[in-house]
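User: Can you predict the 3D structure of Acetyltransferase? Sequence below.
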Amino acid sequence: MYQDTISTQPVIAAERFTLRPLRRSDAGLIALYSADKRVAEGTRAIPHPLPPGTAENFIARAQAEDRVEDVWALDGSAHGLAELLGVVSLTHLEGDQSEVGYWIGPGFWNTGMASQAVAALIAANPHNSRTLFAEVFQDDPASARVLTNCGFDYLGDAESWSLARGRHVPTWTYLRKM
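Assistant: Sure. Here are the predicted structure tokens for Acetyltransferase:
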């Protein structure tokens, strides 16, 4: 596990939004989107139903000095879109490796937002990673396309616990050399 304090997260420009660190004011939209069963079941860590305070706790962890995960909001407000379209994250792993995670609000699905967010994160490479990993549930081929569109290669099958589903779910694991 990564032990050092993580430096301040950069703001990263993308074509239709800006990736910026989370703020407390994001709690309402995070709660709205992540309370959607389809969003929760697409992640490992979002419970369903969403308990009160979950979004606020998520933001507090994302802002903590000793965090191992950097989380960015996809902020479309400068482009006439919502202030929060979804989130993308990088979690420090051993060595020069990080894991990419993301979810997009359902109203923005199938618009290329996730691919654009992951591509912007890869281009910026704020963790100076040599290798990026990601996994998606096998019943979510759209998320797998996001990764392959961004240059990730299929590594293998596995399974991961889904809090919302209350069970292990088959996954596809991907790797991208930087």
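The chain is about 25% helix and 30% strand. The two ends are 20 Å apart (CA to CA).
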